Amino acid sequence: MTGRIRALLRLFAVQGSWNYERMLGVGMGYAAEPLLDDLALADPARHAEATVRSAEFFNSHPYLAGLALGATVRAEYDGVPGAQIARLRTALCSPLGALGDQLFWAGILPGMLGLTVVAVGMGAGWWPVALFLVVYNAVRLYVAVWALRTGMEAGMHVGAAISQSRLPVLVGLAGAPAAFLIGAAAAPAVRWVLGPLDALTAASVCAIAAAGMALGRLAGPRFAAPKFALMALGATLLIRWMIR
Question: Which residues fall within 8 angstroms of residue 130, CB to CB, at 6 or more apart?
């Protein structure tokens, strides 16, 4: 098993040693260890310093942590001064955290959950749940592989590599469909709670879903899909209760 594959597998458990002092730092150090093996032979002193640096404070979205890991490991091999590598780690924390939160927690995850609830509510059985697990984890795997590879190729230029990738575009596109789908999921949710829907309630649900999509486009990350999920469900239940 190559060092890159071992590092990738360890990245999936990067939160396993999470703590308040270093956040993801210890997990990042554990994931970096297989990638730094060659450095131990070429420059033992540099390897010792790199091992310590790799486990220092770091906090970002765990799915995108590979970008920082790959970039800093590449910088170690390129002989970049340690202080500059530490600054790179610090600079990547907020952007990777924000991009990951918007893409996954406020986009892909709630959107896929909403679509799954709609499919199950329309009588598709339970296969959409299995499909959700397969597709979501496939996306997770693809992003992890892409992040580590991109980081290792870019090194200190990882910021430019992120800007030139499709990641910022996908982040901008993910919120509105997620808001729509999570709003549409209100209909099956209400049906499970209060029984079959009538035409007025169904129309209200469509209007709420469309409003969520519009608000998501206007407000951006300030109006995340999980917030809208609660608002849409509450509004639909209220409408349903009023017309009963």
Answer: none
